[in-house]
Amino acid sequence: MERLARKQVQALTPYLSARRIGGCGDVWLNANESPFDNEYKTNFSRLNRYSECQPKALIDGYAAYAGVAPEQVLTSRGADEGIELLIRAFCEPNEDAILYCPPTYGMYAISAETSGVERKVVPLTSDWQLDLEAIQANLAKVKLVFVCSPNNPTGNLIKREDIIRLLELTQDKAIVVMDEAYIDFCPEASTVDLLAQYPNLAILRTMSKAFALAGLRCGFTLANPSIIEVLSKVIAPYPVPVPVSDIAVQALSEAGLARMRYQVLDLSANRAYLQAGLGMLDGIEVFEGWGNYLLVKFNDGDAVFKAAWDNGIILRNSPIKDCVRISIGNRDECEKTLSFLRNALIAA
Fold this sequence. Notes:
Its EC number is 2.6.1.9. It holds the Pfam family Aminotran_1_2. The protein is α/β, with parallel strands linked by helices. The chain folds into two domains: 119 residues, Aspartate Aminotransferase, domain 1; 197 residues, Type I PLP-dependent aspartate aminotransferase-like (Major domain) (Aspartate Aminotransferase, domain 2).
């Protein structure tokens, strides 16, 4: 049966999500999930009816939170579906290309490859910023440029002036897609205010991180109405299940937003605690992070990852040599992780 699959799919290596990698332990800091398990109520009525394609209460709620007009919002099954929609809507297979800048989120490349769209790679600079000259030299055939800020897995912010320069370089040529999955931890760094000036800007958002709703699979694309209208042509007819919409609307209520912001403050304090503790250890480098995770460089990252794994502390290995990404959990999880790493490094 595998031979019946498209050639691109036969050759495809699936994205190794945290759940696919697995693990067995009691400290899970590998998927940038929130440690908060918030309760929601839904009566599960209306399940005999299809959901709205774009539920008005959900669109209005997120538009108000993001500071945009409802016609600038499209909701989808996580931001991952937003990536796929943009590629399907704007890239001709075997003709157009996307451009992305590793080290960064792996689904841009996989979604393009699945669709038969060329992938152009322009690595970030040594300080993990955009190489604008190299990007400009590689824009031929490019319809979408993906930029993640805060970047996953490095955790840094992309310079605002470079984002603006990129938007100007790509005007009337390509759409700049800002992946703001972690922007709720540093909302002041959002590019949402640039939508008014740049029609070639699209922004990906999710409720998986700061809203503690990774299992809900609810994401958003923010863009000017012309882009939203194009995406509406290719999205599935009923992308958001009724219970998903109900719970997301509760999370976007005044009380829900207050709880989210309190939890973001708590996680930011835990990130500072973990960063300070790790910074006191010899032989490692802790990179400044703006999301709910930290990237840490060890003398032997693979060995540290495996040792933690064997002791029930599940972290995330990184494509960056000797680096391990650590999600920010609750204070107890951070303390256990710090204690383990301290003892492991002393023993080494």
